[in-house]
Amino acid sequence: MKKKQTKLWFLIPLILFFGLVVILYMRLGKPTDIVTNTALERPVPTFELPLLADTTRTITNDNLPDKPFLLNVWGSWCPTCVIEHPFLMQLEERGVDIVGVNYKDEIGNALSYLNRGGDPFSMSIQDSLGQFALDLGITGAPETFVVDGDGIIRQHIVGEINEANWQQRVKPCLTVLNKANKNNDSPDLIQVEEMCK
């Protein structure tokens, strides 16, 4: 009787292992990206955080641009942010307004990063605890949000912005929002739906 019970105990890990193999096999070829859109079509979450360049200054929603802009979550520790950074510099040269959210970073490291690679941001907010970024619904860095002139988030880009997704996704969205802002009008929601998703 004891031998039979001992054999059963040895079978349990084997059964669990095969169960796990079956579950993993069923997931093969399926997308693994998790995309959260918790902030889409909502105002930028309320925040009160220090300015990275001068931590004695507090930045709030009132300090955000009153025209369409990009809100880019970045960190000096983030390898993909390093890859994305030169393209952000190009966007800044093209006149695109980018507000940075420095996510869970040391001030010294973040400032050194900007000194080395250039500063594409009209301002960078220091989110050392990461709460503001979580309120935005990010899953990591870099992530970018297209915000309209009324402070409503219209698009969420997970991962780096590069020339391809800029031309295909981000620029068309920003163009629609800028056109509405220039006419002192609210963006056409049908166009926003079409261009910003």
From TrEMBL:
Residues 38-175 form the Thioredoxin domain. It is a single-pass membrane protein. The chain crosses the membrane at residues 7-28. Coiled coil: none annotated. GO terms for biological process: cytochrome complex assembly. CDD domains: TlpA_like_DsbE (cd03010). GO terms for cellular component: outer membrane-bounded periplasmic space; plasma membrane. GO terms for molecular function: disulfide oxidoreductase activity. Keywords: Cytochrome c-type biogenesis, Disulfide bond, Membrane, Redox-active center, Transmembrane, Transmembrane helix. It is found in: Cell inner membrane. It comes from the Bacteria. Belongs to the thioredoxin family. DsbE subfamily. This is Disulfide bond formation protein DsbE.
